[in-house]
Structures are given as structure tokens and as C-alpha cells.
Amino acid sequence: MKLLSLLLVMFAANSCNQTTGETSTDTAMSKDPVEVPASAEGMEKAYFASGCFWCVEEIFESVKGVEEAISGYSGGETQNPTYQDHADHAEANEIIYNPEVVSFETLVDVYFASQDIEQVNGQGPDRGKSYRSIIFYQNDQQKQIIEDKVAALESEGYDVAAEVKPFTKFWVAEDYHQDYARLNPNNGYIQNVSIPRWKRFAAKMPGVLKEDVSH
């Protein structure tokens, strides 16, 4: 009984959540991407899914030119997804960035540098369709940038697992998920998964990091 309890605690400390979505089926998305207009301040938005959104949020918020990363759900057609039931959606992040400081192409580089490029339906200990990797495009230019990067990685021998999909809709996750790593630095998952993942990324792309960011 004690062994079972220990295993349950270890699982909780090393998993972003227990909703894998593996029993859900994907619904075909629209073939036409939705382009999000720049804000009055000139900020643009990009959308990525790459495992646990807590990890991805922390990674992108450490990049120069990124104003904010928001955790949520995207990639499916189910309306009003929740943390308990996001069905065909993946955990995703909305990246609000200044294109004068950081380009979409660099954000794509950050995306691939911060993940296991070949892991299907998950990242690290987080496994299931709700953790699948998806890189979204809003226009033909973004699609070409993504396809060129994928082609370059494949030429290096990688079997790229990330899906490339048109962006259609982003659903913001519940408030308690926002800035989760920053607000819960001693959480077991953050200590054992998020921080090591961030450090691996930081070692690959130190030049894109904000000056005041560290672990």
C-alpha cells in the first residue's frame, strides 16, 4: 500500500495533468487559417502547442521581444474546452510578441529548440493527444517559414512529430494556469520537468534570452 501511494505521488509530481485526451477523436479543421490582426501597439500573436502549457509559457516568456505567453487550448473544434475536458484540443499557448524585436521565424526556432522534436503525442512525461505538438500558421508566409524549418530538420535526420495546422481559434485556459511556473516554483512538476526543460532550451539559444531571466 505504501508503494502504491509513493508511485501516485511521483506521478503527480511529474505530470502536467491527468487529462490526456487519448479517448477523443480529432475533428477536421478548416483549411483556411484565421489571421489575428496586430494590436494598436504593434504586437502580433503566434500559436504553438508542445506538451504541457506551463512549460511552454515559461520558455517563451523568457525570450526577448515576447511580451506575454498565455496558456490555453487549440487545435480542435470542441467549443468552450476546459482543463478537465478539452477533448480534441491540445494544450497550447498564445505568444504576444513585438515583431520589431523578435521575428516569427525566431519563435519557430525557439519552438523546436525547446522540445523533443521526434516525440509523438507528448513531451517528456506528459503523454496523450492533448499534449501533441502543433505549430499553427495564420498566413502563407508563416506556413512557408514553418515548412522550411521542418524540411531543414528532416534533412538533418529528424523525424519531426509536430503537426502543421492553420490557426482557427484559441481558448484561454483557467486563471490558475496562467504564469503557473513563476507562481509555483516549488511545485514538484515545475522542479522536475519545467525547469530542466527550460535549462535545456536556454543552453541551445542563450542569445535570445532576456537579460533578467534565469533559474
UniProtKB/TrEMBL annotation:
Keywords: Oxidoreductase, Signal
Alphabetical list of Pfam families matching this protein: PMSR
Active site (record annotation): C52
Catalytic activity as recorded in UniProt: [thioredoxin]-disulfide + L-methionine + H2O = L-methionine (S)-S-oxide + [thioredoxin]-dithiol; L-methionyl-[protein] + [thioredoxin]-disulfide + H2O = L-methionyl-(S)-S-oxide-[protein] + [thioredoxin]-dithiol
Peptide methionine sulphoxide reductase MsrA domain boundaries: 45-190
A GO MF label: peptide-methionine (S)-S-oxide reductase activity
Entry annotated with the keyword Oxidoreductase: yes
EC id: 1.8.4.11
Chain coiled-coil ranges: none
Signal peptide positions (record): 1-18
Role according to the record: Has an important function as a repair enzyme for proteins that have been inactivated by oxidation. Catalyzes the reversible oxidation-reduction of methionine sulfoxide in proteins to methionine.
HAMAP family: MsrA (MF_01401)
Family recorded in the similarity comment: Belongs to the MsrA Met sulfoxide reductase family.
Name this polypeptide is given: Peptide methionine sulfoxide reductase MsrA
Organism: Nonlabens marinus S1-08
Lineage: Bacteria, Pseudomonadati, Bacteroidota, Flavobacteriia, Flavobacteriales
Record gene name: msrA
